[in-house]
Amino acid sequence: MIKGMMIRIFLIVLSFIADAMADVHLENLQKLLNEGLLEANGAIHNIFQTWSIDEYPKFLKSCAMSRHSWDMLKFKYMHRVLSAYSNKTAHNLGQSLYDSHRYHRNDFVISFLGSSVAAGHDSYFNQSYPILVGDIMRPVFYKLGIDLDSRNVALGNNPCMPYDICVSIFSGNDADIIQWEQSYNCGNHPILEQFIRQAMVIPSNPILVFSESQTAHWGADKCNNQPQNEPHILDDEEKELLASPAIKIVNELNKNEIHRAWSVLGEMIKHYKGAGIQTFTHTAHEQYACHGPYIKDWEKGAAAWHPSAIAHRLRASHHSYFWLLCLKDAIVDLSNMLKYRPLDQVAKEVSRHIIAHHRPLTNTIHKTRVVDNMKCFSDYEPRTIREASLTGRVISGLAKNSNEKGWKNIIYEDLVHENLVKQSLKFGYKDFKHLIWGEADAGELSILMNVSKEGPVFICETPGIWGALPDGFDHLWEAKPEVFLTFNVTSTNDFSFSKDKALQMSYKHEKDMEICMQIEKPVEIGQHVMTISPKGTNKIILAWVLHP
Questions:
Q1: DSSP 227
Q2: Domain count within the chain
Q3: Same domain membership, residue 330 and residue 276
């Protein structure tokens, strides 16, 4: 009897201790949320003041998304706060946070893919808007116990195909947000659907953001004949923007901006709700030219198609402002939930919303040459997934040095101008096109392909300058190299190419393939070796290989 009583007392004490520990965790987490909220309010206020949004409210026209997309980002934020807290306090929420092995993280990754606009050309790399987004938002995430990684993995001079197919090798498989900026060349191109589909199979279920390439610019001469320091009179639209909550601004007031900037995106947003698509535009401030923060020297130091340093700051502020407003919403909602429910129940509720928001892929809208989850191999930089190196897939045929027979490695920018790489490095640029070139005397180049499902194979070169390659080089499809496949190779250690054991493949090039040519016959599942044998007198470039 005494023993039973002692056990009951022991259990009561354990329960009391557990409740006390739960109270401590809730108290500590609420403190963390309060500190994060204070930092978020400060960052939002700084942006508001910097761009005088109360006087020039068209800043608020920059972002559009559905309520569904807003909630997707909000619950992703909430989940990461709980995950980071669990990691750092050893308070195990693994059973409450879905798929804890893959998603139990204390970082948040934003990957910026795009053209020379996002890459920062005409400014220093550390002045580019993807870097500045990190500078603005990182202190807020730090207060919440989260490490923010804002990656600028944009590439100058990148055609829609194959770049928009090869999302993950640049973004990484851990990206929470993937931003796309390439509308100068691909803004209303059906290949946007493939960008969405290839991104949606990334394990981290990233939210997709389309950011318009154009930033409204003006020369100093525009300001010479304008009256200075006259107050701007707000119109009805501007007054409504200032008076409306963030969700109404992005979901209702700005919805027409999507169709203005991207006519093809409207149907895709409805079709691919699981992508949580957001859009950003950067032109509404043009009516404020020469007034307030929109200064006379707005375009100084940049070509008309590139953002100037101050325009990069504006673009970064557009993204940061709305992403921070959503983060603030997440902090407030999470704090309120924790006032009435145990931590484990809140974690389960957040996970339930994330699972409900993620929708599986359905049929494509537009006809396509590719399949979902294409594997891409290239040595282009900056590339997050190092294992996707094209050189790393070469079995034989690559020269070890410049004096040896075989295919050679080179940076394309060195072919354009002998000092271009040095000049680019002075500005801190990261985007360089590392590639392989060969000629008839180089012999065959053999590349390993592990094909996971039957589908197309693409072989691609570099885009050149406005489509023109350097002297002495031919386009792949014009040079007519021989392409062979050796099927079902069990071991590559002792592989030696033999025409007798390989099948020569025919290929085609059509306009929509841009810098690629496609092997005409779909390739079956298995470990195969593709061998390319140059012909003719000119050199050819190999920059990408894509297969299922």
A1: P
A2: 2
A3: yes
CB 381 within 8 A of CB 434: yes
Q: Which residues are bridge partners to 411 per DSSP? A: 434
| Ramachandran region, residue 90 (left: φ > 0; alpha: ψ -120 to 50; beta: rest) | left
Angle at 176 between CA 459 and CA 114, to 5 degrees: 45
Q: Is the domain of 479 the same as that of 396?
A: yes
What CA–CA distance (Å, rounded) separates 273 from 358? 8
Would you say residue 23 has pLDDT above 80? no
Q: Over the stretch 319-359, which tens digit does the pLDDT of each residue have?
A: 999 999 999 999 999 999 999 999 889 999 999 999 998 88
- As given in the structure block, the two tokens for residue 283 are 């032109």
Q: Is the CB of residue 350 less than 8 Å from the CB of residue 79?
A: yes
Query: For residue 519, what is the enclosing H or E element?
Result: strand 516-519
Q: Residue written as tokens 């707000």? A: 234
Q: Which amino acid is at 261?
A: A
> Are residues 318 and 441 part of one domain?
no
The whole-angstrom separation of Cα 540 and Cα 438 is 6
Q: Which residue shows structure tokens 């599942």?
A: 525
Distance between CA atoms of 507 and 144, rounded to whole angstroms?
53
Q: What is the DSSP-derived secondary structure letter of residue 264?
A: T
CB 295, CB 219: distance < 8 Å: no
Residue 446, strand partner residues: 396, 531
| Position 544, amino acid | W
> In this structure, what CATH number is given to the domain that contains residue 174?
3.40.50.1110
Look at residues 357, 384, 400 and tell me which one is the last residue of a structural domain: 357
What CA dihedral angle connects 51, 55, 61 and 62, to 10 degrees? Answer: 0
- Give yes or no for a contact between 133 and 320, defined as CB atoms under 8 angstroms apart: yes
Q: Does pLDDT of 19 surpass 60?
A: no
Q: What is the per-residue pLDDT for 88?
A: 78
Alpha helices per DSSP H over 90-190: 100-103, 116-119, 129-143, 160-163, 168-171, 183-186
The pLDDT tens digits of the residues spanning 278-306 come to 999 999 999 999 999 999 999 998 988 99
**CB contact at 8 A, 210 and 262:** yes
**Alpha-carbon gap, residue 325 to 247, rounded angstroms:** 9
> CA–CA separation, 313 vs 131, rounded Å?
10
Amino acid, single-letter form, for residue 235? D
What pLDDT is stored for residue 15 in this prediction?
44
Q: Looking at residue 394, which CATH number applies to its domain?
A: 2.60.120
One-letter amino acid for residue 325 of the chain: L
CA distance 357 to 528: 39
Q: Which two tokens stand for residue 134?
A: 């990190």
Provide the 8-state DSSP code for 455: B
pLDDT in tens, 208-233: 999 999 999 998 888 887 776 778 89
Instruction: Identify whether residues 344 and 406 lie together within a single domain.
Output: no
What pTM value is reported for the model? 0.93
Domain around 287 = 23-220+237-357
State the DSSP code for 407: B
CA 325, 328, 330, 332 torsion: positive or negative? negative
What does the DSSP 8-state code read for residue 287? G
Gap between the terminal Cα atoms of the chain: 70
